[in-house]
From TrEMBL:
<keyword id="KW-0548">Nucleotidyltransferase</keyword>
<feature type="domain" description="Cytidyltransferase-like">
    <location>
        <begin position="5"/>
        <end position="124"/>
    </location>
</feature>
<dbReference type="GO" id="GO:0016779">
    <property type="term" value="F:nucleotidyltransferase activity"/>
</dbReference>
<keyword id="KW-0808">Transferase</keyword>
<protein>
    <submittedName>
        <fullName>Glycerol-3-phosphate cytidiltransferase</fullName>
    </submittedName>
</protein>
């Protein structure tokens, strides 16, 4: 069967994340989602509101998600693609081109983001309350 792989932070899970995951689930027979660890985020100077354990549990609970793996480094994608025999890596188009170096081990495609929603916007709205 066809295996699809993506990565994300999924902090404050919202409809944009869900719409992406639904499209990914429809692209293949198996969907693997890498969720960034708190340590990996810290390395990027990012701190998520929601802990890794909770972000991973929420993503794992979504229909169509078959496996959640921790994303601990930028360079694990190639290992994950090979280890899980991934056919296609898919990311939102804010990442367009960024993972094309993996095209020697899998297809790489970028899907349009869902407009009007992002974890950053939600945090801004909340801080203005
Ligand atoms: N996304 C989307 N529409 C939105 C917001 C996000 O389609 N309105 C997509 C993003 O393009 C991404 C995924 O949802 O593919 C997860 O988004 P984030 O949680 O913001 O993940 P990000 O910080 O982009 O982390 O190694 C890659 C990183 O782990 C990706």
């Amino acid at each position: 069967g066809r295996t699809v792989l993506t990565y994300g932070t999924f902090d404050i899970f919202h409809i944009g994340h869900l719409r992406l995951i639904e499209r990914l689930a429809a692209m293949g027979d198996r969907l693997i989602v890498g969720v960034s660890t708190d340590e990996f985020n810290a390395g990027k100077g990012k701190r998520s509101v929601v802990s890794y354990d909770d972000r991973a549990a929420i993503v794992a609970a979504i229909k169509g998600v078959d496996l959640v793996v921790p994303e601990e480094s930028w360079d694990q994608k190639r290992k994950d693609v090979v280890a899980h025999e991934v056919d296609v890596l898919v990311m939102g188009d804010d990442w367009t081109g960024k993972f094309d170096d993996l095209k020697d081990v899998c297809e790489v495609t970028y899907l349009p983001r869902t407009a009007g929603v992002s974890s950053t916007e939600i945090k801004q709205l909340l801080s203005a309350l």
